[in-house]
Design brief:
Number of helices: 10
Order of helices and strands: HEHEHEHEHEHEHEHEHH
Strand order of the largest sheet: 1-2-3-4-5-6-7-8
Largest sheet: 8 strands, parallel
Distance between the termini: 39 Å
Helix content: 40-55%
Number of strands: 8
Structural class: alpha/beta
Strand content: 5-15%
Shape: globular
């Protein structure tokens, strides 16, 4: 029996940051306070909340106001929400970003906007809006360069296209996260060529058939990893199939510690430092 299996119900409290949770979603409407309480008790010191569309800008703002200095928002248009009216939607999101950045100029206001995200490319289901996705992603990369905010990047079945766009702006990028990395060694090495970026690792690491426990230690130093849930999706073992939440991250920490041959406290400390460096 592995250390991960032995200790999974006996975690010591370790501080960590969940760099990607949709805690603003309707899945948490009935018990959001309790979910956040469990996250705090498990060791989560900050929750980072990405937008996906215009409606989520409102819900994220409400969550950040309800949990100041704990929940931090991002603004962007998710690739699966890109369609024929993306130009108008992008214009509205950019207006919200500019307004929020103006708020930050007042030192008495709390900082709530920490990144451009969740943005990217997703050709997993369809390429119907391929050109629109490419244009929307590049536009939002430009926002990152312009504002100095890091990127939270979603990419499925589109790494070649994503890398080509990022290369055009490489000198002006301000870092970020390649969210939900599940790729191979070559794909990891290609992404790590972008300085200031980390790979976001979540519950997939704990899945029985995951390649990550062998892939990551081979090519990815802990200094280039951040932790995430993508809650309510992709809960780690032993909660696979359930609604995911930030209090489950200790299972990811334990599995990562086992894969890297280090203590869980080192994983928690290093990944938290990485997230602080990128976003704060």
């Amino acid at each position: 029996m592995t250390r991960y299996e032995l200790r999974k119900s006996e975690f010591s409290i370790m501080n960590y940051i969940d760099t990607h949770t949709h805690i603003d979603g309707e899945e948490f409407c009935d018990d959001r306070d309790l979910v956040i309480q469990r996250a705090r008790e498990a060791g989560a010191v900050k929750l980072l909340v990405p937008a996906i569309n215009l409606e989520s800008l409102r819900t994220i703002s409400e969550v950040c106001e309800s949990y100041p200095d704990y929940c931090y928002g991002m603004m962007g248009l998710h690739p699966e929400d890109v369609n024929g009216d993306y130009e108008q939607v992008l214009a509205q999101i950019k207006g919200e970003i500019d307004a929020e950045l103006s708020r930050h100029e007042n030192p008495t206001t709390l900082r709530r906007l920490i990144a451009i995200g969740e943005v990217g490319l997703d050709f997993y289901w369809s390429r119907e809006f391929e050109n629109e996705q490419l244009e929307a992603f590049e536009r939002q990369v430009e926002w990152s360069v312009e504002t100095g905010l890091p990127l939270m990047i979603h990419c499925r079945k589109a790494q070649n296209e994503m890398v080509r766009i990022l290369r055009r702006y490489e000198k002006g990028l301000h870092g970020g996260v390649f969210h939900c990395f599940t790729g191979n060694e070559h794909e990891a090495q290609e992404l790590l060529q972008f300085e200031g970026f980390a790979l976001g690792i979540g519950g997939v690491l704990t899945f029985k058939k995951s390649n990550l426990p062998t892939t990551l230690p081979t090519v990815v130093p802990l200094s280039r990893i951040v932790l995430e849930t993508d809650a309510p999706y992709m809960a780690p073992v032993p909660h696979r199939g359930e609604r995911n939440e930030s209090s489950f991250i200790p299972y990811i920490i334990e599995r990562m510690a086992e894969a890297y041959g280090v203590e869980p406290e080192e994983v928690a400390r290093t990944t938290t430092d990485n997230a602080e460096r990128i976003f704060f």
